Amino acid sequence: MDYKALSELLYPNITTTIEEIEARFPERNLPEGAKVTRFAPSPTGFVHFGSLFPTMVGERLAHQSGGVFYLRIEDTDAKREVEGADIDIINSYASYGIFFDEGISLDGEKGDYGPYRQSKRAEIYQTYAKKLVAEGKAYPCFCTEEELTAIREEQEAIKANPGYYGKWAKYRDCDLETIKEKLDAGMPFVLRFRSEGSIENKIKFTDLIKGAIEITENDIDHVLLKSDGIPTYHFAHAVDDHLMKTTHVVRGEEWLPSLPFHVQLFRALGFKIPKYLHISQLMKMEGGSKKKLSKRDLGAGLSFYVAEGYPAKSVKEYVMTLLNSNFEEWRNANPKADINDFQFSIKKMSASGSLFDFDKLNDVSKNTIAHMSADEVYDEIVKWAKEFDTELYELFTKDAEYAKRILSIGRGTAKPRKDLCVWKDVKPYVGLFYDELYHKEAEYPEAFDKEDIKQALTMFAEGYDKNDDANEWFAKMKVIADKLGFAPETKLYKKNPDDYKGHVGDISMFVRIALTGKTNSPDMYEVMNILGEERSINRIKNAIKEI
Ligand code: GLU
């Protein structure tokens, strides 16, 4: 067979040479050891939470090594494409502080290795396809859908392995004359890879996360170019990652079964094989067993976290906790450090799947928010509330100083308070400071005499002096306890509970309920300082009337 003639017959319009293309994509001028990674989503309109994993890994590997992290849009499947999805992707990642050095951006493309949208690279793929045909490594296949179905059914009937391979590959050895006739008759064709692999053989491969693996060789003559000349993922992956000089392909482990084919392709094309990191799928526990976190699960989409009000910082912290086994230890030792100061390491990644766990995420988020400054928390809340809670937005922006004083309570200490997990928690938490939101939620415990409660509150209101410091303030609470037959120290009460009606903690609980409407609130001394004397005392007086 004259393969060269076949290549001309199939792609007469491709006149660009491989050399010309290679010259357009020179080696990158980067320091020794710099890694080039990419995020290569298909614009399907759904940004999966799980995609944060490969993205964060790719970003860290590139930026920690002085390399390049770029965004390539894999839009070769027009049927799945959703308008505006690429903008969504860029914005979603930007809100996680993940930026691309190169590729598709909000103001067009940046970088010298474009186009970065696969649909714009048809000529490039076809040039390599033509070369493969000329070398006898690819061939046209004119099978119709019906013919392919017939092959599949026959394979099923005799229990043969499915797929287009070996003797089932009808057009693998078709002669030039027949091909010419079909082309002249205007029959559409796909371009297939001529696989020399056998399922009797295994390929040995080292994945940087999974370690040494052995997988069965590929014997299928997979499609490289569809009938419209647009490549399949596999072919585009090989061509693009070669030309864009990707050093490390970080992608989901669902691509691992395709690896033998990819290795064949890189070899057939004469490309250096990049390093691969296949990231395990995110799992969840369901009914005692592990399951893939699917698109329909709560928390599967990245937008869920935004709407709930998880700070991007918290989500990233959580993902990093799952990605690197030593991250938490580092974080405990460096509670205030920027996450990017952590030395991310491939070696510390686990080869098995991470388990998604809301409790853990919430824990991490509380800790993350607790270590933010009041200003940062304020800015984040306002940004979130603007979109998701207009009432809170208005209260917070009307008097920023007041909001920041509230948010400062218990912050900046060695053991900061952990009241907030998501921004949705803010309103119930700050409600007591705003008359518009304040309402009584808690009741006084039945165990106490109502008269005692009234008396305690009355004495407290009468003795209140806004100039008292926290110690004086609490000393007065003890005096009240003592006068009403409550133990002024919890210790005393614990020793002889029968000698008292309760203890000083109960007195402060009465005040807390009267003042905040809750049994649980931030430090009351501070609460009163923020509310101011008049509002505090009025609340207590109103509470007395209601008992
Ligand atoms: N477009 C592929 C996907 O969205 C990319 C896989 C890869 O990173 O190579 O799954």
Task: Summarize the SSE layout with pairings.
Layout: H1 3-10, H2 18-24, E1 36-39, H3 52-64, E2 68-71, H4 85-95, E3 102-105, E4 108-110, H5 122-134, E5 138-141, H6 145-157, H7 176-184, E6 190-193, E7 202-207, E8 211-216, E9 223-225, H8 233-243, E10 248-252, H9 259-269, E11 275-279, E12 283-286, E13 289-292, H10 302-308, H11 312-323, H12 327-333, H13 358-370, H14 374-388, H15 390-398, H16 400-408, H17 426-430, H18 450-463, H19 470-483, H20 490-495, H21 504-516, H22 524-531, H23 533-546
Parallel strand pairs: 1-2, 2-3, 10-11
Antiparallel strand pairs: 3-4, 5-6, 6-9, 7-8, 12-13
Helix pairs in contact: 1-5, 1-7, 3-11, 8-9, 11-13, 14-15, 14-16, 18-19, 18-21, 18-23, 21-23
Q: Based on CA inertia axes, which overall geometry fits?
A: elongated
- How is the largest sheet built, in terms of strand order? 1-2-3-4
Q: Report the mean per-residue pLDDT as an integer.
A: 95
Instruction: Report the sheet-strand fraction.
Output: 5-15%
Description of the molecule:
By secondary structure, the protein is of the alpha/beta class. The chain is 44% helix and 10% strand. The protein has helices at 3-10, 18-24, 52-64, 85-95, 122-134, 145-157, 176-184, 233-243, 259-269, 302-308, 312-323, 327-333, 358-370, 374-388, 390-398, 400-408, 426-430, 450-463, 470-483, 490-495, 504-516, 524-531, 533-546, and strands at 36-39, 68-71, 102-105, 108-110, 138-141, 190-193, 202-207, 211-216, 223-225, 248-252, 275-279, 283-286, 289-292. The protein is elongated, with a radius of gyration of 33 Å.
